[in-house]
Amino acid sequence: MPRQPDDSVLISGRYFDLQELLEVQETVHMFPKLSRHELAKTICENLDWVTPTGQYKVASCKELLDKLEGRGLITLPAKQEDKIHDNRDRISFGPQTEAEPPVEADITNYEPIGLEPVRHPESIRLWNEYVHRYHTLGYKRPFGAHQRYFIVSGTGQKLGCLLFAAAAWALSARDEWIGWSEVDRSLRVNLTLNNTRFLIFPWVRVKNLASKALSLAVKRIRHDWQERYGYSPVLLETFVDPEIYQGTCYRAANWIYLGQTTGRGRMDRYKKRPFSRKAIYVYPLVTDFRAHLKGETVHE
Where do runs of H (alpha helix) occur along the chain? Predict the structure, then answer.
C-alpha cells in the first residue's frame, strides 16, 4: 500500500497536500468562465493527474471538485455541459435496430459465439440505440472507464449487448467479502468493474447464450481493459433486480452470489434516493484478487 505523505488528505483515490489543494482553489478562482470539464482538465494538467496511459483523470477530478464545493472550499461554475450531454443522449430509433425474425435454434447453429468490442462512433451509436430500445433500463452514458461489446454469432449476426463500467463506490456485502478498508477501496476500486448492461435481443431465444457470453467476457475483459486503459481489473460485479430476473445466467457462468444491496444508488455518498434492492453477483478474474485489491501485491 502506498505510504501516505505527511500533512496530506486522501480524496478521490489520491493524496493531496495543502499546496496542491490551494492550487486547485486558485485555479477555480482564476478561471470562473471555464466549464467544470475544462476546469478538471486544467487541474489534471497542473497536478500531472493521469491514468497509466497518460490520459487525464477528468472524472476523478470532477469528483474532487464536487467534494471541495460540498465542504464550502470552492464555488464551481454552473454545469454548462449538461445541455450538450442531454442532446447527445437523445436517441431515436431507426430501421437498423428493428426487431428481426425469431432466432430459436440450438446454440451450436450459431457458433462460434463471439464478443465484438464497440469503439468506433458509428458502432457506439448503434449499440446505444439497441440498448435504449430493448433494455428495461434503457441507455445511460457510462460512468468513467467502460467497454461495450456486441454479442455476435459465427456469421457476424448481432445477438445482444454487454457493457462493463465503473464499479459501485461503496457496497457493504462486497466490501466485507473482499476485506476492504475504506482507504484500500478508495485507492483500488478501479480494479473492479460492473456489468451495468446485459441484453439478449428479445427475438433471440438461444439456450445457454447468456452464460456463454459471460464466459467469453471473463476471458477477454482484462486484456481489453489493459489495452484501452493501461491496467487490468481483477474482479467483476453486477446487480440483478430479483423482481424481474432470477440471475440464472450468472449462476450458470459460476458468478458468486453475495447478498443484496441496501437499496441506494451507486454514488450514494452524494445522493440519498431510495432504489429497489438488487442481488449482488461477483466473479474473480484472478486467484489472488484480494491481494490485488488490498494492495498486498503489485497488480498487472
Answer: 18-30, 36-47, 58-70, 82-89, 121-134, 172-178, 182-188, 209-229, 248-252, 289-293
Closest CA to 296 of 177, 147, 180: 180
Tell me the C-alpha distance between 69 and 25, whole Å: 10
- The whole-angstrom separation of Cα 69 and Cα 113 is 48
| Beta carbons of 132 and 92 less than 8 angstroms apart | no
pTM for the whole structure: 0.73
Alpha-carbon distance 283 to 237, whole Å? 6
> CB count, 10 Å around CB of 298?
7
User: C-alpha angle with apex 266: 263 to 268, nearest 5 degrees?
Assistant: 75
Instruction: Quickly count: other Cβ atoms within 10 Å of residue 69's Cβ.
Output: 14
Q: Is 43 exposed, middle or buried (0-12, 13-18, 19+ CB in 10 A)?
A: buried
List, in sequence order, every residue forming a beta bridge with 197; answer none if it has no partner: 163
pLDDT by residue (tens digit) across 244-298? 888 999 999 999 999 998 765 544 444 444 567 899 999 999 999 999 999 987 5
